[in-house]
Recover the amino acids of this structure.
């Protein structure tokens, strides 16, 4: 089934202990699409400036990523710069130039309005709400957000959450949004704000899914010796996860678990190279092989 | 098979957001024994002062914990005091009174010298080495240590590590001992110091086992809504883990995985109440039930 993604398309300038890149392809909608398109067709909505080289997205076309919703506006493309610390767990933002993204008002093309699945990447909750007002009864809506909106646009965020099926959020954001230091209690509080399923991203510690019936599924991160650049790992995770759910169409509980491991699988590839370099041409065999390494790495027998 | 444990017996004064206890039973050897004795007989070596009430350990006797190696010395019992922060992930040490533990020189009773498994809890590496010199060809040796010894007694620690089969250590200590910010590379460096298996404890994020062939097994922590007191969770984890290995006798790779989940199971009980209150009278059914919740919480199907 098709997925509508609305979010940033960016040019990132990133420094890590392992190198640096300038004006490299990035943005939540791009990372998401690169991962999700291994499983399902994508309809992308975003904005770039006149300086953007569309050829950089050409690898997505054979994977059924529809770019008709990518607006080209007068001005420069959104640029972000960041520097990661030695262990890649801390980062400083060097600059954020919103440029054309500042005035971004997502317009959903008619051809996209009946998308089955919707992923609202990390943009202002007011815009996320506006997107939902433009589409026709989607099957499933997933949303990402961040501390910036929890602090500055909490009312709007609380208006959009009841319309959301799946919230994908990191552990510190759970605690912040729920105003609760216990992660499990926090997830329960957030479920009462609307989303049926909470996916808690914990970076190098993996992810935890809290289902509608308040049961849990925990997945580790893949233990990598050579991480290069964590930028986009969260959106890539969301892409693998939602992409696989859309492939299933009517996902069962077991499908949700598989989907979470596909998200973890894709994000483990993402961080191995700068920008989207590793997501350009993965084979289905590579994806399945790493997926099964997750399986090997977690399986054990029940108690007798 | 029998397990020799050498470590502290203490009286802890602990404050958490959920209450406080004064001079409550604690110490690495006690937490370890309480957990391990659900699986295997224990020979305990430690020291207490004349102020210690031995009745507080009487719950261990029906579980085959031999206390003949618990020395009673002139003076006061080791006391530790600590206060935990709101999310229980940070703690301040209020005081450490070593008392009789200051002069502790472990003497292994003749009846203990042929113990099959040995757990060297977190004490000075020189003493850990001394214990190994007193025993007769154990089947398996496991060791815990901490930042204090990595900083202050690194040479002695590097002398004992080649004699150790399993190192049980937390994630920050791996990075410190290996002088490497990547956890996986760090584990590889430490394997080259001697231990075949590295068990990395990550607190609320679970545990990672790195096996002799450098394969991984990752386990989550149990998602608890009501944590009370994290004191002793690491030693309880070690107790469940080594206790189950000793029960197996000649553990296979699959047994090591089960053992890690038993460690996680026991430590999840430990933190639910203060001191050892929750470890006093668990039933085998309760343990198996929670173990199987770990199984439910992590299982998924391999990729086709």
């Amino acid at each position: 089934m098709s997925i509508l993604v609305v979010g940033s398309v960016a040019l990132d300038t990133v420094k890590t202990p392992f190198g640096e890149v300038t004006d490299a392809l990035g943005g939540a909608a791009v990372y998401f699409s690169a991962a999700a398109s291994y499983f399902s067709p994508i309809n992308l909505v975003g904005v770039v400036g006149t300086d953007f080289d569309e050829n950089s997205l050409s690898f997505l076309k054979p994977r059924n990523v529809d770019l008709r919703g990518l607006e080209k506006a007068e001005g420069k493309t959104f640029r972000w710069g960041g520097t990661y610390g030695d262990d890649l767990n801390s980062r400083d933002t060097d600059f954020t130039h919103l440029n054309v993204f500042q005035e971004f008002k997502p317009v959903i093309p008619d051809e996209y309005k009946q998308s089955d699945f919707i992923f609202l990447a990390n943009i202002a909750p007011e815009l996320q709400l506006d997107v939902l007002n433009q589409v026709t009864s989607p099957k499933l809506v997933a949303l990402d957000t961040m501390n910036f909106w929890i602090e500055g646009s909490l009312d709007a965020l609380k208006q959009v959450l009841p319309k959301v099926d799946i919230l994908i959020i990191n552990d510190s954001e759970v605690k912040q949004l729920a105003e609760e230091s216990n992660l499990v209690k926090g997830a329960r509080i957030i479920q009462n704000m609307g989303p049926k399923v909470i996916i808690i991203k914990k970076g190098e510690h993996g992810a935890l899914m809290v289902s509608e019936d308040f049961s849990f599924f925990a997945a580790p991160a893949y233990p990598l010796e050579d991480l290069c650049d964590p930028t986009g790992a969260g959106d890539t995770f969301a892409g693998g996860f939602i992409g696989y759910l859309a492939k299933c169409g009517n996902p069962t509980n077991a499908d949700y678990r598989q989907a979470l491991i596909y998200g973890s699988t894709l994000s483990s590839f993402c961080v191995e190279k700068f920008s989207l370099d590793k997501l350009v041409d993965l084979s289905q065999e590579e994806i399945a092989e790493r997926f099964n390494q997750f399986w090997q790495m977690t399986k054990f027998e029940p108690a007798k």
Observations:
- Residues 3-298 of chain A form a domain with the UDP-N-acetylmuramoyl-L-alanine:D-glutamate ligase fold (CATH 3.40.1190.20).
- Chain A has one domain: 3-298.
- The mean pLDDT of chain A is 97.
- Chain A touches chain B at residues 86-87, 175, 181-185, 188, 202, 204-206, 208, 215-220, 223-225, 227, 254, 257-258, 261, 287-288, 291-292, 295-304 (CB under 8 Å).
